[in-house]
Design goal:
This protein is an alpha+beta fold and 163 residues long. The chain is built from five helices and six strands. A six-stranded antiparallel beta sheet has the order 1-6-2-3-4-5, with helices on both faces.
Length: 163
């Protein structure tokens, strides 16, 4: 019985390694594109109207298998600012980076937001959770994000995984 259990555990470990290898073969942009138009965070740890951080971390976790799922932009911001987590802040948006305007840094009583920057039709655009529908959509240009969240007093930060 003990030997059978050990063999089963070894088989599971082997399957998990294969799954991680397959996941890492898809680019982050491919994962993002596959989720557009869906509820990319179907577990609804946060309500859809506040689900942007959960959506971004769920998509990132699907890509890398290790990103923790978080439900707040402030928590995600703190996580990305910590050097040990492997993120670096960059000055300008680039493909596959995370863009964030964290709740708590803008006008009192408003919510921040987080999304991914991807390239569509040669242009950098932002894909994020749509608070009205709970769907993951291409819903901002860089300029529209800066204008909208800037008017609410939010700073905007861009992060990429350290190279």
């Amino acid at each position: 019985m003990k030997k059978k259990l050990i063999v089963l555990l070894q088989q599971q470990i082997s399957l998990l390694r294969q799954l991680i290898k397959l996941q890492s073969m898809r680019t982050l942009t491919q994962v993002i594109l596959s989720k557009i138009g869906t509820d990319a965070s179907p577990h609804d740890l946060a309500p859809d109207e506040l689900g942007c951080a959960e959506t971004v971390t769920t998509v990132k976790r699907e890509h890398d298998g290790i990103t923790p799922v978080m439900i707040g932009t402030w928590s995600l911001y703190v996580y990305m600012e910590h050097p040990a987590n492997g993120w670096e802040r960059i000055e300008e948006p680039e493909e596959e980076c995370i863009v964030i305007s964290p709740t708590g840094l803008g006008k009192k009583g408003t919510n921040g937001h987080v999304g991914f920057v991807i390239r569509l039709n040669g242009e950098l655009v932002i894909v994020s959770n749509d608070s009205r529908t709970g769907k993951f959509l291409q819903n901002f240009s860089i300029n529209r994000w800066l204008s909208y969240f800037g008017a609410l007093g939010y700073p905007t930060f861009y992060y990429r995984k350290k190279k």
